[in-house]
Amino acid sequence: MVVKRVVFVLLLAGCGLEPLSREQIFGLPSVLPKVRLTGTASDVSTGAPLAGVTINVASASIASDADGTFALDDLAVGEFDGTAVKQGYERKDFRVSLVEGTNRLVVELTPLRCQACARLAGSVTDAQTGAPLQGVTVNVGVASVVSNERGGFTFEGLSTGDVDGSAVFARYERKTFRLSINPGANRIDLQLTPLPCGGCPATLWCEPVSMTCQQRARVSLNVVDDCTGAALTARVAIQGRATCTKEGRGFAELIDLTPGGPQTLAVGKTNYQAANLMVTLTPGFNALPSIRLTPVGGCAVTPVDVPCTCTTPDCQ
Q1: What does the pLDDT look like over 133-164, one tens digit per residue?
Q2: Which of 18, 25, 127, 298 sits CB 3.0–4.6 Å from 193 for a disulfide?
Q3: What is the CATH number of domain 198-316?
Q4: Class of 35-109 in CATH
């Protein structure tokens, strides 16, 4: 039937008649109706507006604002199933009939009241000063909240049983804990320890006397044959970090080191006697004198050159 109607349109066009539009052929409206859904979400017991209620209608979703209001635009006309979900409240299922224009929906949620549900309250403070910490992310199981200006936090509708948790805040050590959630009210108070120097970026280190973030150290050196003066490809290690000198140049550099000392810098190469050098590193660039390695057996021996490889996790 569709094919016949299209052919008919083509014939009309050939006769000099104006062809039918796509909307006339297929029965489609020229302009889709504008459908909007607005509403409020509130606590059925107190009537208080609820923020953060997730409203789902068809394939659209939005969270209610601080005053409990919400609005969904560009919806379709018709009847749709929907849900309203918020932690600590019973899930609300509804069916809404949408018409062209603005539609109104009032959602009232019932707080969870069951023997298996629990409430957890607590506070987060600085372990050194006791001051409350605002903005700490507290995680309990899969639930998460942020502490308020008084350092307090509350979880509603938790499941009972043992659960792992954590508290995370910038410039403080991450706090992990495990607790048993019982039906009804539960409480936990957390103390977070400030990071040394407030937590230095990876490129800086915390100087323990002044407790300030300072520049890290880098060290460079050359490794040569003590008998011939030729550059050697050798392994250089310090502070658990290692590298190989450049082939043909004997040059090596290690970065992101912690200043201070004395500390041991080790240099080794197959068929050569190892060398250990005690160094004290200063923040920034440190240039060391050339390290001279002696062949095993002395200068009368010409050692077989074994290339240096550095593939362990400590390699730079």
Answers
A1: 999 999 999 889 999 999 999 998 888 889 99
A2: 127
A3: 2.60.40.1120
A4: mainly beta
